[in-house]
Amino acid sequence: MPAIELDGLTFQYRGESEPAIDDVSLTVERGEFLGIAGETGVGKTTLLKSICGIIPFQEAGTREGSVVVDSKRVIDAESVDQLAPTVSMILQNPESQLFNLRVFDEIIWGPENLEMDREEIVRRGEEAMELFGLEGFGDRITYNLSGGEKQKVAIASVYAMNPDIILLDEPTSQLDPIGTEMVFDAIDRLVDEGVTIVMVEHKIEELAEYADRIALLEDGSVTRLDETRSFFTDTTVEHARPQVTQLGMQLNETGVADVDVPLTQDEAVVEYDALLGEP
Ligand SMILES: Nc1ncnc2c1ncn2[C@@H]1O[C@H](COP(=O)(O)OP(=O)(O)O)[C@@H](O)[C@H]1O
Ligand SMILES: [Mg+2]
């Protein structure tokens, strides 16, 4: 039983002349990390919103096809909130997702609404703060946080609700390399725990390292959907690659060397050290 099944999903925003996503079909397995790549305006955010129920419950437009999450049709739910314990989305702009004055209240807001046991709520909230490097932030005013800190709070508050499926829309866009690493490490732990992740992300190095598969969106359609290594090493995929991958492919293509094309920094160190005959 897959975590997410999209079948012929099309959505056109009210007032627009063309659909933002057009006939998208794809399946995401439980515990999988699916990365979504693509240029601005191709429909990535629209796709995520359709999975968590923001579409159709909070956006006007026409929708065709079906979205089944955790074996239930999204359209049969009553609201986005009702779906939240199953599937929750971290929006591209975290500001629009923060409602509480103080960080800890924000983080436990979801679990409180789910009426989880109080001790469990506090435990989960503290765990979320630690996981996302927010220790000591509990009493800070959410509005005064930096963009990156807001992103971490938004992710931590979704984590605290313990959903089966988490959708993230460019979650590290305002984070520095250390913050980015922290978020990806935390996501990696969630994947280990069996949580399903769908993430829109422009940082290809991180996608290459952590995602199981990558879907490429172009003009509202999924034009490629491949296991991550195949996606980044296939010469017919026209998308940016990690630098180490690009280098390996060029070395092979030009006949300068014959390397196992690396996908990550760690693989690159091993492969290129061997090539250079490290003493
Ligand atoms: N609320 C909206 N109303 C009308 N058109 C929208 C709305 N949100 C997005 N769009 C349009 O839908 C298309 C896809 O947008 P979006 O899903 O945000 O793409 P991406 O996340 O890949 O940048 C774009 O042409 C965008 O202008
Ligand atoms: Mg977007």
TrEMBL record:
It is found in: Cell membrane. It is a peripheral membrane protein. GO terms for molecular function: ATP binding; ATP hydrolysis activity; ATPase-coupled transmembrane transporter activity. Pfam families: ABC_tran. This is ABC transporter ATP-binding protein. The keyword Translocase applies. The lineage of its organism: Archaea, Methanobacteriati, Methanobacteriota, Stenosarchaea group, Halobacteria. Keywords: ATP-binding, Cell membrane, Membrane, Nucleotide-binding, Translocase, Transport. It comes from Halarchaeum nitratireducens. PANTHER family: ENERGY-COUPLING FACTOR TRANSPORTER ATP-BINDING PROTEIN ECFA2 (PTHR43553:SF27), HEAVY METAL TRANSPORTER (PTHR43553).
